[in-house]
Amino acid sequence: MIDALLEPSDLPHRLPRFADISIEDYGPAIEQGMAEQLAALTAITASAEEPTFENTLVVLERSGERLDRVLRIFFSLLSADSDDDLDELHAAYAPRLAAHHDALLLDDALFARVNAVYEKRAELQGEDRYLVERYHRDFVLAGAALGPAEKARLRELNQEISGLEAAFGQAAQADSNDLAVVVDTVEELAGLTPGEISAAAAAAEGRELAGKFLITLTLFTAHPYLSVLENRELRQRLFEAQLARGSRGNANDTRGIALDALRLRAEKAQLLGFDSYAGLVTADNTAGTPKAVRDMLERLAAPAARNARAEQSALEASAGGPIEAWDWPYYAEKVRVSEYDVDLAVLRPWFEADRVLRDGVFFAAGRLYGLTFDERPDLQGYHPEVRVFEVSRDGEPIGLFLLDLYTRDSKKGGAWMNSYVTANTLLGEPSAVVTNNLNVPKPAPGEPTLLTFDQVNTLFHEFGHALHGLLARATYPRFAATSVYRDFVEYPSQVNEMWMLWPEVLANYAVHHETGEPIPADVLGKLEASATFNEGFATSEYLAAALIDLAWHELGPADVPTSPEAVEEFEAAALSAVGLDNPAVRPRYYTAYFKHIFGGYASAYYSYIWSEVLDADTVAWFKENGGLTRENGEAYVRYVIGIGGTRDPLESYAEWRGRPAPIAPLLERRGLV
Ligand SMILES: [Zn+2]
Q1: CA of 574 to the centre of ligand 1 (A)
Q2: Residue 214 CB contacts under 8 Å (≥ 6 apart), including other chains
Q3: 219 pLDDT exceeds 80?
Q4: Rounded to the nearest 5 degrees, what angle is found at the Cα of 493, between the Cα atoms of 492 and 499?
Q5: Is 14 exposed, middle or buried (0-12, 13-18, 19+ CB in 10 A)?
Q6: Phi/psi at 598 (5° precision)
Q7: Residue 541: predicted pLDDT
Q8: How far away, in angstroms, is 256 Cα from ligand 1 center?
Q9: What mean pLDDT value characterizes the chain?
Q10: Are 454 and 487 in contact (CB under 8 A)?
Q11: How far is CA 449 from CA 355, 363, 518, 638, in A?
């Protein structure tokens, strides 16, 4: 039934009627949603009435309601519960949706009306005025103010760039698959668990290499096995396989594709009046300019490199000689255990998933924001494994939280949050429906789900996004829930991580699942003592990738090299210019397999550390003001997570704190002072 996609649901909080949706419904629903939006926009532009906020901006905001409802469901399920058919449908509709979006933002008559309202924006207040300003910027940055020939070129560029991005992703993936490391004997795998060894044997069998072992490459540069494999040659082989991705001169070489995309992006930015693509991207973020980003990254680079060198000496003392990049994670783990006596792996019995959720994540949200959570087994998610909780604030229901914890074949990797319904008054949506997805391996039947340290952290992080989605209140859908700038959106989720180890929260949830014993009292102290351990390395490898991203996107079209061989040279120059050229500390991603920047994060990889400035300052504020209190939570809702995208977020922040966020708390947290 396409109505289950287009119409508001009659279930509590408008939880989508997942059971009534079948795959054949998406195509017609998307078609209808696009057609209805175009018709609504045509009605605006055909109107003889003088443009006003009401007859232009408000109508524009309403026009996407039904299409938006379909797409929220479609894109959420594409990540959380997909199959080949849904993936194919996405491949078929992605270019259509991009063209629909272009048609909207490049419509001359519509832009003329928005511009007319924008010219008179002094008459508007608050969220209304901000809405006009933001739409105006959307149109201008999409090219609406250009002449016809330039617009035509821009459309061409957009198509070519998205084609190159898709080609980059496919080639990088294919080369990663090809580069899986074949291991002949089980002895070489010393350090892996029996489960990991049998997975490697099964992977080898899957490629007709029965009797051998296969280590497949993950998305991340630092393969998790590098920290445990005892065989140095195998570590080197694994590391070099990762490094080779996309740059072997074969059919899956991504470097030429990357350079073409960079050149076209630079041309696009120039067409829109910017010196570089980084200028275009930062103009629509809180950073504002590439210079602000570069200043911040460079401010961190020297102390990070210095700390990494000190860490290297300690690791070399442990190794009894010089170490290479492929040895770093292995000796870092050894030193972590011997120096700090912290072995994160032994903590799992204290991290039973349901207990972490109810007595940790929900408990902290209760203390801070007055939230309570009632499981609603009568409400169905999109998959039997999804749990649905009704969320109330001071007893008043405000929405639903869906938790989808486990890994499945139908789920993409990683962890994320989505909104199905966002609270906004224009469309009469009083509450929100949000979901968190994780990838926790499902335990054997009857066994408890024991989380790793990192998984607990991820649960708190993703729940920070969920809180943002649940507590934000906006008039307009454009600003609802987590609709904030990309270099701001990670900040609330980063802040929520602080409660994981907050003594009162930890004591409440970290209880041994068999003995009921609390977590050993000295664990917290040890974790605190080791908090900046290896941070020189972690900060350096992140900054190196962020600076490679930035350096490429600072170039004008004529400055982008044409030969694939020039890529390594450019990277080396960009890194040595800022002192991040230690061969033992490689960038987290090199260009040839930097999927973030040939997908949605072009020139925006800096965002994580940019938002961490606000995060670190906020964590310091909570600590100085008594931590886990309702009063603190209320202030944070009022100035940060409760406002969604309704006003300039840094202005609101400065109003709260009486000043912008300084960088010092971040430097201190990462041991960079
Ligand atoms: Zn996040």
Answers
A1: 28
A2: 180, 181, 182, 183, 200, 203, 204, 206, 207
A3: no
A4: 100
A5: buried
A6: -110, 30
A7: 96
A8: 31
A9: 95
A10: no
A11: 10, 19, 18, 36
Catalytic residue among 61, 311, 462, 490: 462
| Three-class DSSP category at 7 | coil
Distance 653 CA to ligand 1 centre (A): 20
Residue 218 has a pLDDT of: 73
* 26 CB-near residues (< 8 Å, 6+ apart): 5, 70, 74, 86, 89, 93
Does 360 score more than 80 pLDDT?
Answer: yes
> Residue 625 phi/psi, 5° resolution?
-110, 25
CA 304 to chain centre: 23
432 phi and psi angles, rounded to 5 deg: -120, 150
Unique residue bearing structure tokens 């500390």: 585
Does 544 score more than 90 pLDDT? yes
Residue 80 tokens read as 């959380």
Distance between CA atoms of residues 499 and 508, nearest Å: 11
Task: Write the pLDDT tens digit of every residue in 5-62.
Answer: 999 999 999 999 999 999 999 999 999 999 999 999 999 999 999 999 999 999 999 9
Instruction: Please name which of 250, 251, 254 lies closest in space to residue 262, comparing C-alpha atoms.
Output: 254
pLDDT of residue 259: 98
Longest CA–CA span in the chain (Å) reads: 81
CB 467 within 8 A of CB 496: yes
HSE, side-chain direction, 13 A CA sphere, residue 183 = 27
Give the pLDDT confidence score for residue 345 in this predicted structure. 79
Percent of residues, the chain, with pLDDT higher than 90: 87
Q: Is residue 273 classed as helix, strand or coil in its secondary structure?
A: coil
565 is a catalytic site residue: no
Burial of 327 (0-12, 13-18, 19+ CB in 10 A): buried
What's the 183 CA to ligand 1 centre distance in angstroms?
35
**How many Å lie between the centroid of ligand 1 and the Cα of residue 568?**
30
Ligand 1 geometric centre to CA of 482 (Å): 11
pLDDT at 441: 87
CA of 491 to the centre of ligand 1 (A): 8
Residue whose entry in the numeric block shows the structure tokens 């990254």: 297
Question: Checking DSSP bridges between strand 213-215 and strand 371-375, what pairing results, if any?
Answer: unpaired
CA of 417 to the centre of ligand 1 (A): 8
Pull the structure tokens for residue 553. 């996107």
**pLDDT in the model for residue 525:** 87
* Average pLDDT estimate for 600-623: 96
Confidence of residue 404 (pLDDT cuts 50, 70, 90): very high
